[in-house]
Amino acid sequence: MVFPLAPGIDHPFVAQQTQLLRQRWLANIEQLLQLADAHLALRQLAQQQPVFIGEQFQHANGLRGGTAQDFGINDGMGQHVGDSQRVAPMSIYKPIYWLLFDSTYQAIIEREPFMSRHTATQAFFDPATGTATYVVWDRASRHAAIIDPVLDYDFKSGHTSTGSLERVLACVRENSLQIDWILETHAHADHLSGAHELKKRTGGRIAIGERIREVQATFGRIFNLEHGFVPDGGQFDHLFKDGETFMIGAVQATALWVAGHTPADMAYRVDGAVFVGDTLFMPDVGTARADFPGGDAHQLYCSIQRLLQLPPETVIYVCHDYPPESREPQWQTTVAEQRAKNIHVRDGIGEDEFVAMRTARDGTLDMPALILPSIQVNVRAGQLPPPDDNGIAYLRIPLNTLPVHR
């Protein structure tokens, strides 16, 4: 279920809308999105006084009471107001969505973009798949790249939807961005890629590492894909070579081959930061698995060491977070923090020790819940399989093929 909350501040319009939201919290979510149009008035108000979001609510039908976190409102000029967690300048009056998981609440939040020397980076975390999607843009030219977008998929009904993508597209509109690139770090096994849908709506070029051909060939055999599927990478607009440079506006970026999780994993280094895909996770979570077809724990260790040789202050953006109960989801760290604290590969842990740990741990892990639907979409750059003669597209489920740990 989705619970919308509106700002509880002393303003007639906002008070009226807040009461409406209390009365109609199960109403059509699309109606709530229209409330974003009120952000301009609140942006002006926020320049005059601190504004805070945060209001307790309870639902009488046996649910636990949930308390909204306090979020400091940006003053509309890029300056933080107050000491609470920050939100994006253009996101002053948007519903905050709370997802109910086993009577606990987890927020989908858009935090204020992180500013590097030449770029801004906005993260979007999807609690359903633990995936972080990024929009990074050249602040001068407003040209941008989107990294690892998510197409929502309901496994039980077989329906796809674009809720996660709509949040990304709202960021693109609000910041007047021109999308140059839609970057995949690899063919994901835990979510369907939203790259194809984003390309239709933004015109960006979809890119991935050139060794996606190996992944396509491997899974093309496993899924026995249609004869028209050719594992040549042609489904993507560009295939990066290791060390290849490319431009996001006037900012140079570099593609780094970081195989191990899959043969085709890439990281993208941009303006003092690196988007590492499925290599490193947050330090208290460790590293990605290496037991998928074509994965290699030795290679993963070498790829991680390549990343950890970057300058200590380099910002690391991870692709996933699976946080312990003691903290909220996070997705930003540094090389120095990883070298000091990563539970799997901190300084002093050698290759043999890592491989032994990684192999033993991988032997206990189940396959990701969405590996079968996601891979056959993601090797197509996010396109769904071609429809049958009845006009319906189908996903294939290979039986008794992937490994299972009992």
Describe this structure in words.
The chain has ten helices and 24 strands. With 406 residues, the protein is α+β, with helices and mostly antiparallel strands. The strands form six sheets. A seven-stranded mixed β-sheet has the order 9-10-11-12-15-17-18, with helices on one face. A six-stranded mixed β-sheet has the order 19-20-21-22-23-24. The protein has a three-stranded antiparallel β-sheet with strand order 1-7-8. The longest helix is centred in the N-terminal third of the chain and has 12 residues. The radius of gyration is 22 Å and the shape is globular. The N terminus is likely disordered.
* Total E-strand runs: 24
Give the biggest sheet.
7 strands, mixed
* Helix share, percent: 10-25%
Poorly predicted regions are 1-109
Rough outline: globular
Mean pLDDT: 80
Radius of gyration: 22 Å
For the record, give the distance between the C-alpha atoms at the N and C termini, rounded to a whole number: 32 Å
Oligomer: single chain
* Structure classification: alpha+beta
β-sheet strand percentage: 15-25%
Strand order of the largest sheet: 9-10-11-12-15-17-18
In short:
The protein is of the alpha+beta class. The protein is built from ten helices and 24 strands. Helices cover 24% and strands 24% of the residues.
SSE order and pairing:
Layout: E1 2-5, H1 12-23, H2 29-33, H3 39-46, E2 52-53, E3 56-57, E4 66-67, E5 71-72, E6 85-86, E7 96-101, E8 104-108, E9 114-115, E10 119-126, E11 131-138, E12 143-147, E13 150-154, E14 159-161, H4 163-174, E15 178-183, E16 192-193, H5 195-202, E17 205-209, H6 212-223, E18 238-240, E19 245-248, E20 251-257, E21 266-270, E22 273-275, H7 297-308, E23 315-317, E24 332-334, H8 335-341, H9 351-362, H10 371-378
Parallel strand pairs: 5-6, 12-15, 15-17, 17-18, 22-23
Antiparallel strand pairs: 1-7, 2-5, 3-4, 7-8, 9-10, 10-11, 11-12, 13-14, 13-16, 19-20, 20-21, 21-22, 23-24
Helix pairs in contact: 7-9
